[in-house]
Structures are given as C-alpha cells and as structure tokens.
Fold this sequence. Notes:
Number of strands: 0
Shape: flat
Largest sheet: none
Distance between the termini: 26 Å
Radius of gyration: 16 Å
Number of helices: 3
Amino acid sequence: FMPNFIVLALCLVTGMLLRRAGRVGENAHQALNAVIIHLALPAVTLRTAGGDCGLSTPFMRLSSVAGGQGS
C-alpha cells in the first residue's frame, strides 16, 4: 500500500520538474490522459477479466510463457 504512494509522489514530482524545465508541452496532460483511457485502462480490464473468467488474449498467453501471471 505504501509503495503506491511513493510511486505516485515520485511521478508527481517528476512531472513538476519536467514541466518547470520546459521538457513537456502545454498539452502533455491531454496526451497522458489519452494513453491512460485508450491503452492502460483496457489493458487492466482485460487482465482483470482474464484472471476471473478464463479470458485468454495473446498478451496474456505471452506473459505466461515469459513467467508472468497470464492465463
């Protein structure tokens, strides 16, 4: 539980430093939101559903071959 807060704080501070240094643009937050909505959220949903109902995707099969927890 506590490592999650550490990662969150680290990401927040990194983002603030990158913004202050001018390394990210004005619309960086929109790009990151698009990645979360269109890539990360469906991936987490499929991963969770795969563990509960036996759904098997190519990524999950690959991760099981690579030593992950896929189906």
